[in-house]
Design brief:
By secondary structure, the chain is an alpha/beta fold. It has 2 domains: 19-268, Aspartate Aminotransferase, domain 2; 269-400, Aspartate Aminotransferase, domain 1. The chain has helices at residues 22-31, 44-56, 67-77, 95-102, 120-127, 145-155, 206-217, 235-244, 257-266, 270-288, 319-332, 362-368, 382-400, and strands at residues 60-64, 85-89, 106-110, 132-136, 159-162, 170-171, 174-175, 182-186, 199-203, 294-295, 303-304, 309-314, 337-338, 371-375. The chain has a 7-stranded mixed β-sheet, sandwiched between helices. Helix 2 runs parallel beside helix 9 and helix 3 (67-77) packs across helix 7. It is globular and about 65 Å long. The protein starts with 21 loop residues before the first helix and ends in an 8-residue tail after the last helix. The relative contact order is 0.17.
């Protein structure tokens, strides 16, 4: 065993918020103008929506308090009946089935394979039992969207993309979040863009976004301050708002101007973060894959990822050895979360005890019991990435034996 060349990196701090936003923050603090509907026009939240929609190539965007709020509003905007069944992958974060329960619907879980992506056979087998689908691109791993959309389109099932981990990811060159009817993104601290909390949904459907806007908390006629991208026909959106005035409940899931200002300042940083995050991930993955005890699943062919973490499977080790590996890595300074072994992990479906129907997903369970998760921020230098890889390789060598020499 050899010691890492440098001190283990701090992977928990986010990048500093760009200094360029400080003037806008000071202006907002001086004016106290933090509510999105106070300004007659061009409030920071409205500007964020226009800029994000433009960046994604979508007609409409609605910024809200979290990605969970965006998922909830998406389901409500689809006008699903109470008790509607919504298919999701068995590997996702607890907030996804929670948003379905919140929307008075029933989560239905399908199997996920050892590459963290939806098992298409099980997915297809359950499609005729559901009314809608949420595809979670969990930890930025894209399932086969060609097969998924073909199967759902053939049945007329609406698809919502939970792209909380996938801002900047492409599928056949198309931006993830723009493939389904609605795409939902997160601005929580551990995501590519950090506002502490926050989310946004995008769609090209005027009727859907009008319903979502009103339910997000656009009371009276404040929906008039929402607009489509410059140059788009606004009559469809205006007509939809007028149809739904006073006919929908207000859930008050709005984003504040202060959060929007922080998010807007980071939008220009997305291409760099995507590029650096992918380079870090691929470098560390190549190092880890040299071990016979570790497997980092490959990306699917059409997928260009935007990772800020790395996931890998332990191969040929039993539960005690996997626990010993995680403990050894943690002692050396790299926290490893084993999804199925970390106590009360919110990504292990059997801990979602609020589900009205608890499934058994043997393939997903088997994967989660040996799937490891390590944060790998885009801001890390190559030396820091190598230090992390060294620690992980040393930890598995302590438990299972030496790895193959690097480069062979």
């Amino acid at each position: 065993m050899h010691a890492p060349a440098v001190t283990p990196p701090n992977v928990h701090d986010a990048e500093p918020i760009p200094a360029a936003v400080r003037g806008e923050i000071d202006r907002l603090l001086q004016s106290g103008d933090l509510f999105r509907y106070t300004a007659p026009q061009d409030a920071p939240v409205s500007l964020l929506e226009s800029e994000f929609a433009e960046m994604m190539g979508s007609k409409y965007a609605l910024a809200v308090s979290s990605c969970s709020a965006a998922l909830f509003l998406s389901l409500k905007a689809l006008d699903l009946p109470r008790g509607a069944r919504v298919l999701i992958p068995g590997f996702t974060f607890a907030a996804v089935p929670s948003s379905i329960v919140h929307a008075d619907c029933v989560p239905v879980l399908c199997e996920v394979g050892e590459n963290y992506r939806i098992d298409i056979t099980d997915f297809e087998a359950k499609l005729d039992q559901v009314d809608a689908v949420i595809i979670s691109h969990m930890r930025g791993h894209t399932s086969d969207m060609d097969a998924i959309m073909a199967l759902c389109d053939a049945r007329g099932l609406p698809v919502i993309e939970d792209a909380a981990h996938s801002l900047g990811t492409l599928w056949h060159g198309q931006k993830i979040g723009t493939i389904g009817r609605i795409g939902c993104f997160s601005f929580q601290s551990y995501k590519l863009v950090n506002a502490g909390e926050g989310g946004i949904l995008i769609t090209d459907d005027a009727e859907l976004v009008a319903r979502a806007v009103i339910m997000s908390g656009a009371y009276e006629h404040t929906w008039q301050k929402h607009k489509s991208r410059p140059g788009d026909n606004t009559s469809d959106l205006r007509d939809a708002f007028q149809r739904w005035q006073n006919k929908l409940p207000l859930y008050n899931l709005r984003l504040s101007n202060l959060s929007a200002a922080i998010i807007r300042a980071q939008l220009p940083e997305i291409p760099r973060r995507v590029r650096d995050g992918r380079a870090n991930h691929d470098h560390v993955a190549a190092r880890l894959n040299q071990s016979p005890w570790i497997e980092v699943p490959e990306a699917l062919g059409p997928e260009e990822r935007a990772p800020d973490s790395i996931q890998f499977n332990m191969v040929g080790l039993d539960e005690a050895e996997i626990r010993a590996f995680a403990e050894a890595a943690g002692t050396a300074g790299v926290k490893v979360q084993v999804f199925g072994l970390s106590q009360d992990n919110a990504r292990a479906y059997w801990n979602w005890q609020f589900l009205p129907e608890m499934p058994e997903l043997p393939r997903t369970r088997e994967m989660l019991m040996r799937a490891c998760d390590v944060r790998l921020p885009a801001r890390l230098t190559r030396a820091k990435c190598d230090a992390m890889a060294d620690i992980l390789l040393d930890a598995v060598a302590q438990v299972a034996g030496p790895v193959r020499a690097y480069g062979t």
